[in-house]
Amino acid sequence: FCLEALLLRKRNWVLFTLMVLIWGSNWVVMKVGLRFVSPLNLVMQRLLLASIALLPVIVWRQKSLPRDRFTWLKLVMLSLINATSMISTNIGLLNEASGLSSLITYTQPLFVFCLAVPFLGEKISATRILGVVSGFLGVAALYAARLRTQINISSPFLFLILGAFFWAITVIYYKKFLNYVDPAIVNMVQFPIGAILLLSIASTLEGLTFSDNMLYILSILYMSVLGSALASTIWLTLMREEETTVVSTSSLIVPAIALIFGLVFLGEVIEQISLLGFALILIGIYLVNKSHK
Q1: DSSP string, 245-265
Q2: pLDDT digits (tens, 9 = 90+) for 208-221
């Protein structure tokens, strides 16, 4: 039993590493994609292509869709919340640097931590609280100077923080109500539902657009196949098998990776205080996982 648990934990760490690398780089890719189409069209096309990418996996693994209506109702609700989160995040990202956008979005673990205790009954310990606080301070330190000058009610900050809050709700909702459903099935259902919803909204408000620019095509494929179909399925798998607070807090490493990619590919600036941020994030991850052992 101990060996099996150890192997499962090692496998999950490998999956987690793959996920954070994909999501860390995905912020730059999303920023590039938004040069060609609007946030509504981008997210709609991303969800649609992610659904297509998952279909062969479902067929190969011979997974069947849920048959009871209550599961479907819960999946529809999850789809709506997830689509709202993605749209809010992309609207904010449209007018903000990818590094700062990832920073604000990854306040999500704080929301998760606050919601997981009353709704999921997860344990609180001084070590875990210290780890969450350390991780969040690390994320904040990555762009502390810009945060002091750029947060205002009319800025993209509002959309990004709303995206983070709704993302936290999807985490708690899945863990509490849909944990028994295979993650690939959850995404196979929620992605097309979200795409259909956004298709109707986009066609009504602004019209449907698609760019045939090769850079955009590569960007949307990366977002869809890796960022959504693969990484989001890994995320739900980890949420299913590990404690919600542990996975969410550990994912604070994503904005640090996004910051590096933003520097290399978009010329975004890394300030000296960012080094302190990296250290605080790593300490936070260690403390949260230490209390989990």
Answers
A1: HHHHHHTTHHHHHHHHHHHHH
A2: 999 999 999 999 99
